[in-house]
Write a structure and sequence with these properties.
By secondary structure, the protein is α/β, with parallel strands linked by helices. Helix 7 crosses helix 13. It starts with a helix and ends in a 6-residue tail after the last helix.
């Protein structure tokens, strides 16, 4: 029984981890020092080559997928929003007066994530797990609310030119780091049962329109897309003008819901008939 627990492989071949360790113990010779002699899968120079991009893309898809599967996470609630919106207690640090006023949505994001996580815990933390971009601002609020509810939450961070560490509230072993934006976006939506969008900038707009486009073109099933901040979003995007111009159909606006509070957003999710999609 102990042997089965220690080694779950379905074959009898020598283990790759075992060989990777053994490769460090080979005699030091001109041949063994050559880059050509390195095992391919531990050769960083080789893995970074231009020709290996397809392999790196596959790895960035597989690693989070496998970890989330192992943790039994079946569905998520995604929270997009601005990294620059501070918590209400740090309102004075906001760069502009308007940004300071948006701190109320930090608190709504925190409250929403707290309640979503309470519900998730009723499903043993497998369903409706909070998922954010892992950074500061609204993302921090989402992970913070989940943490305060005693549940887990996901952070999908990405390497940026300016250093950005994951916020302190992401569940450590569900904190992921990406090089490819495209793979990060896939992981945001692969398990999503709802997408919430709080006030934000280019990144938030990009993520919101990506989800809308996939649903509009029926590349993914329809799920609730809930925008927090009615005045903000109706000033940032002239939705009616898009319909008037004919660049979208009037029914496309039904893909969106606008709310102000966590309670309103939760009511939309509760009323959604997931079985019909």
């Amino acid at each position: 029984m102990d042997i089965i627990n220690e080694d779950k492989r379905s074959h009898t071949f020598r283990d790759s981890v075992e060989d990777a360790k053994a490769a460090d113990r080979v005699p030091d010779t001109p041949q063994s020092r050559s880059p050509a002699y390195r095992l391919a899968f531990v050769d960083e120079d080789f893995m970074m080559r231009e020709e290996l991009r397809p392999v790196r893309l596959q790895l960035e898809l597989l690693k989070p997928q496998m970890i989330l599967d192992e943790r039994g996470i079946e569905s998520t609630v995604v929270m997009f929003g601005g990294a620059r919106i501070p918590a209400p207690e740090r309102k004075e640090t906001a760069k502009t007066p308007m940004l300071g006023e948006l701190t109320k949505y930090y608190e709504e994001a925190r409250r929403f994530a707290h309640e979503v996580t309470n519900r998730s815990l009723q499903h043993y933390g497998r369903q409706f797990v909070v998922c954010t971009g892992g950074g500061p601002g609204v993302m921090e609020a989402g992970n913070r609310g989940a943490n305060e509810a005693g549940g887990q939450s996901i952070g999908l961070n990405i390497l940026l030119p300016h250093e950005q560490a994951p916020n302190a509230y992401v569940t450590p072993d569900l904190s992921f780091n990406f090089h490819y934006f495209a793979l990060r976006k896939m992981h945001f939506l692969m398990r999503a049962r709802a997408v919430t969008v709080f006030p934000g900038g280019f990144g938030t707009l990009d993520e919101m329109f990506e989800a809308l486009t996939l649903i509009q073109t029926r590349r993914m099933k329809r799920i609730p897309i809930i925008l927090f901040g009615i005045d903000f979003w109706k000033q940032v995007v002239n939705w009616d003008l898009l319909v008037e111009a004919g660049t979208i159909n009037a029914e496309d606006l039904h893909l969106l819901s606008f709310v102000e509070t966590a309670g309103e957003a939760l009511a939309i999710i509760d009323a959604w008939d997931y079985g019909c999609e």
